[in-house]
Amino acid sequence: MQSPHVQHFFDQQSNTFSYVVSDPVSGCCAIIDSVLDYDAPSATTQTTQADFIIDYIHQNSLSVAWILETHVHADHLTSSQYLKAQLGGQIAMSKKISIVQETFSAIYNLDIKHFNSSQSFDYLFEDGEPFKIGELAAYSIPTPGHTPACLSYVIGDAVFVGDTLFMPDYGTARCDFPKGSAATLFDSVQKLYQLDESIRVFLCHDYLPAGRQQFQCESTIHAQKKHNIHLNEQTCKTEFVVMRNRRDATLSMPKLILPAIQINMDGGQFPKPEANGISYLKLPLNYFK
């Protein structure tokens, strides 16, 4: 089984792990779940986190084939457009992004025709579609539940699961966003648990549960199946759905969900500048009561 080199980058503001996954033979790579720094009070962006990735890619003489998103993130903005402008590569995610775009176009009162006629993503993966990163064999696994467009990427002996799973001592992702489903997430995790138990599992977030001192981004299928506190191989579906729904009812909305989704579901594009040259975000007042 091929073993890609995986370099992680951690954004402590959003507790997000981004990755550069590279083929040791060809030097070809993919960037997964990038972060654009965003200051909410001033509505300003910076490229500090993305520049760490750019520096690493230049220092290691890598070439970018893909800029991959595991889902439409609600807790950070993607830097995919900036990275593409600097490094090239195709921005890609699940073909089911259309469900998210339709759902949130209604919430933001945006014209869905914009997404239907001019897709900002360069490539949309079918469920289970194979692809290559240099000589590395890869394929997608649909893992909805957290969102309807969640996609995990199996690359050699590694799988990048986005928000489907966290570290075993923290559990699983919330499922209370529009079109989310705890029952669907349970089924998605079963697909992951069918992978070889030695597969490395790379996560999008870590939140330091009580008793652990260091942030971690890597687990294994074996560890998740045996020890995930929310969903292990002994967990029944009904038990999980009840637990997940009860837990989600206590959670507040992510701080950046409204700016993040509006930009992330459009492939990282900012809204078109208005006559004064400034881009403006829309906020649906009192929608999420």
Explain what the structure shows.
The chain is α/β, with parallel strands linked by helices and 289 residues long. It has a single domain, classed as Metallo-beta-lactamase, Chain A (4-Layer Sandwich). Helices cover 26% and strands 22% of the residues. The protein has eight helices and 14 strands. Strands 1-2-3-6-7-8 form a six-stranded mixed beta sheet, with helices on one face. It has a six-stranded mixed beta sheet with strand order 9-10-11-12-13-14. β4 (37-39) and β5 (44-46) form a beta hairpin. α5 crosses α7. It is globular, with a radius of gyration of 18 Å. 44% of the residues are buried. The model has no long low-confidence stretch (mean pLDDT 95).
At a glance:
This protein is an alpha/beta fold and 289 residues long. It is built from eight helices and 14 strands. It has one domain (5-255): Metallo-beta-lactamase, Chain A (4-Layer Sandwich), CATH 3.60.15.
Series of H and E elements: EEEEEHEHEHHEEEEEHEEHHH
Number of strands: 14
CATH C-level: Alpha Beta
Low-confidence runs of at least 5 consecutive residues: none
- Derived structural class: alpha/beta
Largest sheet: 6 strands, mixed
Relative strand content: 15-25%
List the defining traits of the structure above:
single chain, alpha/beta, Metallo-beta-lactamase, Chain A, six-stranded mixed β-sheet, 14 strands, globular
